[in-house]
Amino acid sequence: MEIDPGTLAALEYVRDEQVLGLGTGRAAEAFVRGLGARVADGLSIRGVPTSERTAALAAELEIPLLRLDEVPAIDTTFDGADEFDPNLDLIKGYGGALVREKIVAASSNQLVILVGPEKRVAVLGSRGKLPVEVLPFGEALCHAQLRQLGCEPERRSGEDGAALVTDNGNYILDCKIAPIENPGELERAILEIPGVLGTGLFVGLADVVIVRDGDSAEVLTRP
After folding, report:
1. What is the chain's Cα-based Rg?
2. Does the annotation mark 101 as catalytic?
């Protein structure tokens, strides 16, 4: 199996007998496939998946899995991102697993992010979308109060046109936003809205960002 340069660089952070967080999305799935090849060659690790989709892929590759409540801590989590800025702060959640991803990231000693060069932005919010996971019961209130914060929320739909439901049984509101002057402040304001479970802002969490560009990979560490 041919492994891409970003995944190869990420695999350098893996050690035998570790517990690894396994992210969701294309970059994370490429890493999981590369990890599966190493497991087949004898690497001994256990994984904590951030979504049912990732769990199914890991099981297919015969990567041993654990629930989060079965481990005291995760050594390193490997995931993707939809934006990253010069501080290595992130926007995540286009793949729909933002709350579980943040829980697993916060349970980890290290967070390694794999991205393509198109995900690099000068200011978070430059791609114009911030996912927010909300309880269905609180959707109307969340809509109203997100608008008061300058966000324009729209419920995410699945391929069948019905509301997309997360693995947690909730809705995602994709908020149209301008570049964010203070990501931490905006996240705190959104989290104060009753019914909000989490945002796609990952501030101060990433330790390493690996940027795959063609046949090479650039490794960035938090300033």
Report:
1. 17
2. yes
Both tokens of 75, joined, read 């050594």
Are 115 and 141 contained in the same domain? no
Same-domain pairing of 10 and 101: yes
Residue 115 pairs in a beta bridge with 211
113, 179: one domain: no
DSSP assignment letter at 74: B
| 20-64 pLDDT tens trace | 999 999 999 999 999 999 999 999 999 999 999 999 999 999 999
Half-sphere exposure of residue 2: CA atoms within 13 angstroms, side-chain side: 3
| Residue span of the structural domain in which 107 resides | 5-121+203-221
Q: Are 103 and 133 within one domain?
A: no
Per DSSP, the three-state class of 31 is helix
Q: Could you tell me which of 220, 223, 222 has the C-alpha nearest to residue 9?
A: 220
Residues of the chain above pLDDT 90, percent: 96
* Token couple for 1: 């199996």
Q: Give the residue among 65, 63, 67, 68 at the shortest CA–CA distance from 31.
A: 63
137 in the same domain as 89? no
- Each residue of 127-154: pLDDT tens digit? 999 999 999 999 999 999 999 999 999 9
Query: Among 29, 83, 101, 187, which one carries the catalytic annotation?
Result: 101
